[in-house]
Design goal:
single chain, 260 residues, alpha+beta, two-stranded antiparallel sheet, flat, binds adenosine-5'-diphosphate
Length: 260
């Protein structure tokens, strides 16, 4: 709490009283702290691959280049780290685009099920390549929501892509949509590795990963779910996950029904 006190004088300049103004600055402080944390996080995430790229390049230039096998291995790592860097930059650009859009977008009435179908079909090939069955269990009707269709597509894309990433071959992914009086709930269920109970609330935080090494190998940046949460918050919905370790995860998000 910040207090500003100003004297209240009469025409002759005599003190007549004081005016005290109380400002609640906790919100401002909180935002400032979030920004600083974000910049720290991003810098750290960018530095890791750059350090690796620089390290391996220097070792190559110092002579390791003469050995063909070492050369191949190091360039492989450099290629991987460059890919990671570029995905990270892409995710950051997405985040900034979303921020920009959030201010400038007018939400429209769109059909949730149509967006679910079209996004799932875009990832069908990817699922097949990983030997995973991706199926939809949807009703034949329209489900109107007030939304930005690109943003919803991004939400579904991130959830389905994760389900594919964290599900071993021969697994299954099912997408369902439930409804209550006021909301629709979209479920993306997988038969993958699952999430330990202590991590379930944290996976929606920026850069949070249950298993850093695994996420790295899968090309993860730790930003996907934070983008999902951000977008769903913006639409007035909620996100969550239920999971059994070793058996699978059920990610869900809700959206308010559009009142036509
Ligand atoms: P990443 O780029 O690492 O996948 P996300 O923000 O998309 O980042 O997800 C954060 C973490 O949540 C992941 O690193 C992973 O540990 C966990 N996770 C996300 N989706 C799933 C899933 N379907 N099954 C198991 N773990 C998951």
């Amino acid at each position: 709490l910040e207090v500003t006190i100003s004297p209240f004088l009469d025409e002759k300049g005599h003190l007549n009283g004081v005016v005290a103004v109380l400002h609640d600055i906790t919100q401002i402080r909180k935002l400032e702290r979030m920004r600083t944390e974000f910049v720290d996080n991003v810098s750290h995430e960018l530095k890791t691959p750059v350090t690796a790229i620089k390290g391996f390049t220097e070792t190559l230039l110092d002579g390791a280049m003469d050995e063909r096998e070492t050369c191949r291995e190091f360039i492989g790592i450099i290629d991987q780290e460059t890919g990671r860097l570029s995905r990270l930059i892409q995710d950051l650009l997405d985040l900034s685009r979303i921020e920009h859009k959030r201010v400038n977008t007018r939400l429209k009435i769109v059909d949730l099920l149509a967006i679910v179908r079209s996004t799932a079909s875009k990832l069908q090939g990817h699922a097949e390549n990983s030997d995973i069955e991706l199926s939809l269990d949807l009703q034949e009707k329209t489900m109107p929501v007030k939304a930005d269709s690109d943003m919803l597509e991004q939400v579904l894309f991130n959830l389905i892509e994760n389900a594919i990433k964290y599900t071993p071959a021969q697994g299954r992914i099912t997408i369902e949509v439930d409804e209550t009086e006021k909301n629709y709930t979209v479920w993306v269920r997988d038969t993958g590795i699952g999430i330990p109970p202590e991590d379930r609330n944290r996976v929606f935080e920026r850069f949070y990963r249950v298993d850093k090494a695994r996420s790295r190998d899968m090309g993860g940046t730790g930003l996907g779910l934070s983008i999902v949460k951000h977008l769903i918050d913006f639409h007035g919905g909620t996100v969550g996950v239920e999971s059994t370790l070793g058996q699978g995860s059920n990610f869900y998000f809700t959206l308010p029904k559009a009142n036509n």
